[in-house]
Amino acid sequence: MKCAALLTATAFLAIGCMHPDQETSIPPLSAAGERVDPGLGPEAHPLSSGPGYKGSPSWSPHGDRVAFTVDGYVVDKPVGTGNARRWTTRDFVAEDAEWTSESSLAILGAVSADEASSSVYRARSGEESLGVREVAKEVLAMSRGPGGDGLMVAIQTGPGESELALLRDNGAVDWIYTSAIGGRVTGLSLSPDGRSAALAVRAAGHTFELHTFDLRAGVHRRIAMLDDGLEIFGAPQWTKEGICYVVGKEAASVDGGTAPLYDLYSLTPGTGGPQPTPGVGEDFVASSIRVSPDGGRLAVIGRLNPNAPVNLYVLDLAAQDLEAVTTNEDMQIKTGPDDLAWSPGADSVAIVARGALSDEPRVRAAPKRALLEDFYNLYEIPVGDRGAAR
Amino acid sequence: MKEAALWISGAALAFFATAGAFLLLANLGTGPSERNLTPDPPPAESGPALELTLTQDRLASLRALPGQELEVGVRNAGDEDLSHVNLTVEVSSENTALSDARYYRENVNELPAGSSVPVRFYLDLSQRESTIGTTSAPAVPEPPRKIIEVRATTPEGASAIKTAIVPL
Known about the structure:
Largest interface: A-B, 49 and 53 residues
Strand order of the largest sheet of chain B: 4-3-6-7
Number of strands of chain B: 7
CATH architecture of the domain at 50-129 and 143-166 in chain B: Sandwich
Shape of chain B: elongated
Number of helices of chain B: 2
Largest sheet of chain B: 4 strands, antiparallel
Strand content of chain A: over 45%
Radius of gyration of chain A: 26 Å
Shape of chain A: globular
Distance between the termini of chain A: 75 Å
Oligomer: heterodimer
Helix content of chain A: under 10%
Number of helices of chain A: 1
CATH superfamily of the domain at 50-129 and 143-166 in chain B: Immunoglobulins
Number of strands of chain A: 30
Strand content of chain B: 35-45%
Helix content of chain B: 10-25%
CATH topology of the domain at 50-129 and 143-166 in chain B: Immunoglobulin-like
């Protein structure tokens, strides 16, 4: 009797728990969309692909698109998947491009290689033609305007003389600062509060000077003068801890050859002379720098010493803490002054890199438009809060 | 004592019978709406397999001149014969601002399974006259390389691609 009861119960349980069909395991999702390690570290994410000499990345104000130059012309593309969109004709020679709104770019360059000087052109998305409108001539340098609105430009007004002007988003001149600057402005950036500008100036006799420009009072003053043979590379960066700038010596012996050698300096206006930027180390060779949107961090492309690989570093200026955010494995990271850009949220930096060049032909089993390391391409390097004051 | 055991056995039997009946009803009730979660099928094999070969030595001997011979090895690595294998070659500059692409086409009528054939192209790798002097030299400070993209397709859907980057 007991056995019959137990057998009955077991049978009922077996029937009840039985699945109508054989159970099948579900394999994990495919790895589509996974990050590709191009030799810059596992977190590097390509923003472009295919041939073309690319440079000057610039994030849109919302951070969902990135504009850049390709062989002189200007394109932009979504940060995720999506096709590139061309903004200029292919014979354009652009040096730099900056977003002035979600739908417009300011482009520093020339409509052809025959032009002797550079102008700023305004281009709008969604327009049928690739026409651009010239909004300022004889432009030496440009930077986003105060608060990200409009554009600040340095204009050559005579031999060895420059002026600053503020342009609105639509290209109209908003303000011209008539206080003439003696020399050619070679780099320009605004202070974090947008009230002042830091200028690299090539003065008479080809000596380089560092100036500040009070945009409210309209006056400027020289705060540093470099020795002969030294130059300021790119635009000085006005941070919360002072103005940082890269000083280049003509050439130095590296691995039996010669290469430019650059040092990173800092200067706090009104508190003394230039000092080597604390936190990077004595042997550090800086190439290009860009201050974070909040002014507290500095993205630096450089080498820990003249024989070390080029990497992207983030320097916490207050804590004087330098952290590498790429792990370069035989990649060539571009070191031009405009070849890095912070995302608006300061959580990523865009850089430009390619694999080491070879004199031998290379064969790939992929279409050219999908190739990455064979050409200079843009990469997003997440930095999170690395280098942020903790 | 015997009576107590009988009562306990009866109660247990009633409990299991009721539980089993409920489980049975539960399964019957959900049967129609249940659907198998089958995994996505693995990527389909691309049918007949085509392979392309570009040899480094041949590529290294190319010059920036007309009439440069490029030999492309085409192999049917599948187990079905192929017909009408279309081969296209695009030669372009690394500098995308130059509109100087040149295109070449050849056809292999029959390619039995397991066999391979060499296909020769005679490429003009010289720079087009219309682009000489029009390069955006200030924006591109280094000489551009040539890009040779070779594609093979068949009406059956087999395809292969190889891209060579050649310094000239």
